[in-house]
Design a protein that fits this description.
The protein has 216 residues and is of the alpha+beta class. Helices cover 55% and strands 14% of the residues. It has a single domain, classed as Glutaredoxin, CATH 3.40.30. The chain contains nine helices and six strands; from the N terminus they run E-H-E-E-H-H-E-H-H-H-H-H-E-E-H. The strands form two sheets. It has a four-stranded mixed sheet. A two-stranded antiparallel ribbon has the order 3-4. The chain starts with a strand and ends with a helix.
Length: 216
Amino acid sequence: MPQPLKIDFVSDIACPWCVIGLGGLEAALERLGESVAADIHFQPFELNPDMPLQGQNVVEHIAQKYGADPERSAATRKMIQARAAEVGFRMATTDESRIYNTFHAHRLLHWAGPEGRQLALKHALFASYFTNGQNPSEYDVLVDAALKAGLDGAKAREVLTSGLYAAEVRAAEQHWRRAGISSVPAVIVNDRYLISGGQPAAAFEQALRNILAKAA
């Protein structure tokens, strides 16, 4: 009988390391195969909650937030793109890319949970932002991602325009920050074990095997 794994994946869709971390986690779960029954829940975390809807140039933003010059920023971006490619994701960011507000995307992800399409929507949102360079604060972009994830477009737009799940997302964000989460991705397994960062598949696999051994 497969061992259950409850996995809370705390992340932001504007976080490139979250793309890498999700890819590593999914590859690890595939390697574990039928020995586990994983139940993944995507939890909200905004890297830039005060970002205006029109966003900010990524090079300018990284310089202001981390003090990185354009050359260092470009080198880091190239390294991240290579890591993303290793998990099968095309990250097409450039010096002209922008950082955007992601709150509405998190509201849509919250709605997608009970619909059983959260994972598919997460992938669609990553692609719309990192591959296609779209603004995830725009309703049309979010509705298109919902459609690609197999969700009802009209219902997705209703969620967005009505302001539904704003309070729930804010409460969840506060919960994870109070729990000590200050960077993402943060992967919490069975409400007890923390795996931090965009780890490769081998690291996730070993961590999950250790957790499974302790549970047994």
